[in-house]
Amino acid sequence: MRADQREGTPPGNREPRTPARAEERFVALREGDWLALSDLLERKRSLHQLRASEISHVGRLYRSVCTDAMRARASGFSRELISYLDGLAGQAHNALYGARPYPIGTIVRLLTHGFPAMVREQRWPMLISTLLFTLPLVFGLVMSLEDSSFASAVLTREMLQQMVDNYADAHHGRAPTLNAFMTAHYIENNVSIAFRCFATGIFFTIGSVFFLIYNGLAIGTVMGGVISAGHGRNILTFVCGHGAFELTAIVISGAAGLRMGWSLVETHGRSRLRSLQAQGHAIATLIGGAAIMLLTAAFIEGFWSPSAVPDPVKWGVAGGLWFGVLAYFVFAGRSDRWAS
Predict the structure, then answer these.
(1) Domain layout of the chain by residue ranges
(2) What confidence score (pLDDT) does residue 328 get?
(3) How many Å apart are CA 140 and CA 225, to the nearest integer?
(4) CB atoms near residue 258 (< 10 Å)
């Protein structure tokens, strides 16, 4: 292959075609910018990491290439040159405006610093969400244990009976394929609960308040109803492992919904849209962390909770998980070295 046919060389710099004088002059005049843009795209694939002045320079080169492509098409230049310019413009467009990759380092920083730090920062929404969820849960549990008719008033008889039947027997393991299927089901179920607790907060916090109370009451009532039916050991052994992640994530999702809804109530003199935008980072951080916790909970619930591992081992692991989650939110992310 000749040197003038190497990859990245503008096609107009190759053997001239007749008549091609105008195209030759056009290429000679403009190829410097094309090669400069091609070189920048090759060396700097993550343009968001460049300085503002460099990004501006890339943008100028991109616009000039777009103009050159239109001029080449209008002048009837060779199809090879037009394809080259179209391809270069497309690469530049994707680099400038395409979705940025979500590097693993961003997730690491979220989990090691951003998420736990934000949970502590949003202490008032977290406290309110915790009370709105746990107090109805305890109330539903106690009332279901004291009055068998209470569970039927909160849940349908069919739903309650189904839950009792599910925990009538202790779990002694199940097929791996069924574990995978149930994990997908748990992901869908957990996300739907957390999503309602979060997204309905847009109605000035009212939706989040309702779904936190409702889900807390429903979970407590189910537990009380199953325990009253004589299967308390089974249900408590099953939920103890994944509960640390699942229940905490629901509370955090509710806190994000409360934060979102309250920003529309107390705007500090800004428009509601501006006020909501000002809370965007906090809300996204809480929801991102809660989503990871829900995925973790689903995998534990799908593979560990129904396993044939002896009950005492499950209780010991559950205790460690609850302690670990608590310690994580108390201590993680306090070092500034993770903030950069």
Answers:
(1) 3-97, 104-338
(2) 95
(3) 9
(4) 25
**Residues 63, 113: Cα–Cα separation, whole Å:** 39
Q: In this structure, how many other beta carbons lie within 10 angstroms of the beta carbon of residue 339?
A: 11
Distance in angstroms between the alpha carbons of the first and the last residue of the chain: 47
Choose between 105 and 189: higher pLDDT: 189
CB 140 within 8 A of CB 218: yes
Burial of 245 (0-12, 13-18, 19+ CB in 10 A): buried
Asked whether the beta carbons of 171 and 238 are under 8 A apart, the reply is yes
The pTM of the full predicted model, rounded to 2 decimals, is 0.70
> Using an 8 Å Cβ cutoff, are 81 and 27 in contact?
yes
Rounded to whole angstroms, the Cα distance separating 164 from 227 reads 9
- How many angstroms separate the CA atoms of 206 and 198, rounded? 11
d(CA 307, CA 241): 11
Which helix (H) or strand (E) segment holds residue 177: the answer is helix 176-199
Distance, in Å, from the CA atom of 171 to the CA atom of 25, rounded to the nearest integer, reads: 79
Q: Encode pLDDT of 299-311 as tens digits.
A: 999 999 888 899 9
| Per-residue pLDDT tens digits for 209-219 | 999 999 999 99
As a whole number of angstroms, the distance between CA 192 and CA 268 comes to: 32
